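Incident log, structure service

09:12 report received: a user says their structure output differs between two submissions of the same chain.
09:20 pulled the input from the user's history:
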Amino acid sequence: MKIPVSQVLVRFLEKLGVKSIFGIPGSHILPVYDALHDSDIRSVLVKHEQAAAFMAGGEARVSGRVSACITTAGPGATNLVTGIANACTDRLPVIAITGEAPTHIFGKGGLQESSGEGGSVDQVALFAGITRYHKLIERTDYLATVLNQAAQHLLADIPGPVVLSIPFNLQKEQVDDAILEQVSFTRPARAAPVADEDIARSIELLAGAERPLIVAGHGCIRARAQAALKGISETLHIPVTSSLKAKGALDERSPLSLGSLGVTSGGHAMRYLEQEADLVMILGASFNERTSYVWDRQLLAGKRIIQVDASAPQLQKVFRADLAVQADLGAYLDALDAAVQAGGLAARKPVDIAGFIDQAQAEIDAAGATIFDEQFDHIRGFYAWLETRFPGGLTMFDDNIVFAQNFYRVSARDRYLPNTGISSLGHAIPAAIGASFSTSEQARKPVFAMIGDGGFHMCGMELMTAVNYRVPLNVVLFNNRTMGLIRKNQHQYYADRFIDCDFTNPDFALLAKSFGIRHVRVNGNTDLDSLAEDVDFFEDVNLIEILIDQDAYPNYSSRR
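09:34 re-ran on a clean worker, output below:
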């Protein structure tokens, strides 16, 4: 039986497990939208295509499933670029379907033509460096091959985004409905078992260490290895610090947690790493600019290193390791735990991490190196309130980062999702909306989007997307009437020569009223009492505005 290519594409998305597709229709993609009309895939109309890609990324990041976005040709596709780049750096299985002008006008300058012919914009080339696979499909005779390639990249153990551009006339062309039988939707087999010699060498290095330390990266979360990490940490009394993206890989309320490591953190983990650790186990962490304090060589000087990562290119990318193991983090930790339980390594004396943190904080305070002074006490109080108010956990998308990194202890029941990819402003709100479409489990936990006022102005209209689809969402807006990081740097390094950082905000209470959502303003710890009484965090869309003095700066150096 013959069916149009547009219907094949929708069936392809269904077989990939896509539940929602985020986008904006346009003339050149309407055949696919018409096919979506009869599908169980829920189409979600956004306010800007960049947000469509961010929403797809948010859904994929929380669910682990393939997620999708869809746009028309020309500006619809070009507006996706930042969101697709974010999915690329976060290794997310996001597929973007974009329209294109009909092939018979290629090179003639048709409306929104972006085929790359005749001097027109080449929209597929725009995605070349930020996708795992991208293709302008000009004929149907190789359609099955293209779809199979796309599926393999999306379903890979370490996935990445895919962009398929489909000319208008091709969407309507008839093909055999058996075409998808040529496409494999099977996920690849897991990595081979961890080699015995790698476990034996790990045991040998651990046995020779007095103060080992685990640096947990996002690979531990991607591999769902949190339980195995907890088991090894507790059995061997090894403290754990994490990269920012891996906050909560070990419950940060655990007595063995040092919190996160990095330039914008309070410094406890860095001090332990520098002063105490003699062996560092780097598990699924890339040791990027933030985590490594801009690749400070002294951080790992004189220490033995074990690095384990599922991705071979991550191994020894920025430093030498005494043992480098390519392996699934869950498989490695399970095998190491089994060896330990079999008597391969004796438990060492428990470490007093709480005592170390207290002493380190006293030294930090005495040196005047505390990141936040009393001007930020109400923000510290807000995060403490969140911990108490939601013991069952919450999902937090975070564009601001520096506050949560220092003030929020991510529990095993939380999902903390910082914007660490390309760190684009305006990410948290659409990503959180996308996540809210993900699973019934997320519906039982409140979803928070933490964002500054500068970032809010890039995506604020997406609040209406949440309203339109009755998606519960709590937006925490930090209002200091400036681009905070830029102003801090201009204060620290440019003698207060402020330029293009300050601005005037609207009245956010009136703005929220116009959206038909609740607004609460927090200007001190006393306001937190009414916050608990007035706001339904589970069912409503809420805008929580937290005021910050424009001249209050976190005391850290970005080393720029």
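09:41 both user submissions now match this output. Likely a transient worker issue. Closing.
09:42 reviewer note: DSSP finds 23 helices and 20 strands in the chain. The first helix runs from residue 5 to 15.
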